[in-house]
Amino acid sequence: MAEMWLPGATRYNIGNTGTMNGGPARVTHHATSNTTDWTFKNESAYFNGGGRGVAPHLVADPFTGQIAQYFPANSRALALQNANDVRTNRTGKYNIQIEWVFTKGEVVNGKKYTNLADTPMKAWPTIRAWLKSLGIAETFPGGAPQSWARDTVSLDMWLKQGGHYTHAQVPGNSHVDPGPLGNLFGGSTPKPPVTVPTYEPFPGAGWFSMGRRSPIVAAMHDRLVAEGCGKYKSSLDKDVIGSGDKASYEAWQRKCGYTGAAAQWPPGKTTWDRLKVPNV
Ligand SMILES: [Zn+2]
What we know:
Elements (H helix, E strand, L loop, with lengths): L9 E2 L14 E6 L8 H7 L11 E3 L6 E3 L25 E6 L5 E3 L2 E3 L10 H10 L21 H6 L2 E4 L48 H12 L16 H13 L13 H7 L5
Parallel strand pairs: 1-4, 2-5, 2-8, 3-5
Antiparallel strand pairs: 3-4, 6-7
Helix pairs in contact: 4-5
This protein binds zinc ion (ZN).
The site of zinc ion (ZN) has 5 residues, from loops.
């Protein structure tokens, strides 16, 4: 069973829980954006006091790693506006709302920070592990946030796709927070597939010694014939370099536009690459 209260978070059990509507579980990220007091102490106290009516699940400090929690995971929080009759706080099995204690342009230890992506995001590994235990997909259906601007997703996406959203993306809302968050899922970014070369790489001019036996030679033979450059007298020992290979390759060099000494055995890299000998 997943824990409904994040282990280690300061717990402010403010009551006033509400049921979720079910469906794909999600997260909504916010930034507190306070112009006067950027401290965790101030923000965490606010949602336990005058801000109870707009409380999230979590308040998290990206600089210190401090975390406070106001509702259990299976309750709705209150930091979102409805989208007409869709009560966005209740969408999904979970809609874990996180208020990052951050203000665009805030100064910490003499350094100005424009985005959460530039902070150490210290509370994130702890929160991430908890969100994973709740079975919330590590994906942004509407794309990871790139700016402090509205990027509203369709109501259809919001209702049907689980994962991570920003306040700026939730339909029916007007806020632009939390701005860029950086690469939250780190190593989970899919790597491009390893590309196997389609063609045999040039083995070097010195490789083409008479009498060498290799499947590459047979593959070259077939390509030279296919290009109309076959000067072979037979296809016996197709995988052994011989006079037929020399005559055929030189025909290929001439076909490529080379003349004189440039159109003589052994093969060079340019004509080899153009021949496109399949990998063997
Ligand atoms: Zn917000």
